[in-house]
Design a protein that fits this description.
By secondary structure, the chain is of the alpha/beta class. The protein has nine helices and eight strands. 43% of the residues lie in helices and 14% in strands.
């Protein structure tokens, strides 16, 4: 058994693909550096992330895959599935070795698995865009926090930057403890020195941090939400399907 160790970055995975072809030795397992090794193995190779190698592999994929398939590939990486590194390695190898496009060969279990993961991540991205609720702070910054199933916040930046171009905002991933801050011009990835602060765990700002009119706007929003609800047409099953319960604690109208 040959094991590759990498730094758990996408560029590191692409470097692993490059090195495997260079060495003519392909891994049976890809693990994160520092992860416990299995009891039995023949060889351990540590991949040193090289951006030039990664770029060469990516350019090959650009030639071999459609734009949609490339998107699916990158989306599936953000799923953080336990076996995602090895799955994508097999996927990329099959795409590389095939004489013609096989991106729609769903009879292949790896092609199908990557496609399904990409779809799940795309759906989660859309839900974040739908259900993100912002609270205005006393400093004039709009704060929104959620706990997505997958690491989809990087996929939402362009939308929020275009949609709220004239406002300062901060979106925070409660699960992964990082976020993005837009200062009116640039978007920067941020973390907090104390990620255990209440509003970083619950997504709800304390009243002392809110803008003086924020409570009023929240009350108006709840009133609007209640007024448009037609009780006779309530369908709880469909409602939970369209608006999963796991998001409710972050929604103003549900609190």
């Amino acid at each position: 058994m040959t094991i590759f160790l990498y730094d758990q970055t996408f560029e590191g995975l692409l470097t692993a693909v490059f090195d495997a072809y260079s060495r003519k030795s392909f891994p049976d397992s890809i693990l994160k550096i520092g992860e416990p090794l299995p009891l039995f193995y023949d060889e351990v190779y540590t991949v040193v992330t090289d951006y030039e190698k990664a770029e060469r592999v990516w350019k090959l994929l650009v030639r071999k895959l459609s734009k949609g398939a490339l998107t699916t590939l990158t989306y599936s990486w953000l799923s953080e599935a336990p076996d995602i590194a090895m799955l994508l390695f097999r996927y990329i190898r099959k795409i590389t070795d095939a004489p013609r496009s096989i991106e729609t060969n769903f009879a292949d279990p790896d092609i199908l698995a990557v496609t399904k993961l990409g779809k799940k991540v795309a759906d989660e991205r859309y839900r974040i865009l739908q259900f993100m609720r912002f609270q205005k702070t006393s400093e004039g910054i709009y704060y929104g926090a959620m706990k997505p199933l997958y690491d989809v916040f990087p996929l939402t930046i362009n939308h929020f930057r275009d949609r709220f171009a004239d406002q300062k905002w901060l979106i925070y991933d409660v699960k992964r403890k990082y976020g993005y801050y837009y200062d009116g011009q640039n978007v920067d990835e941020i973390t907090f020195s104390n990620p255990l602060q209440t509003h970083l765990l619950t997504g709800k700002l304390d009243d002392s941090l809110l803008d003086k009119d924020e409570k009023l706007f929240q009350t108006l929003w709840k009133s609007y939400f209640k007024s448009i609800c037609i009780k006779e047409r309530l369908n709880p099953v469909k409602h939970k399907k369209d608006m999963p319960v796991r998001y409710w604690k972050y929604l103003t109208e549900k609190n």
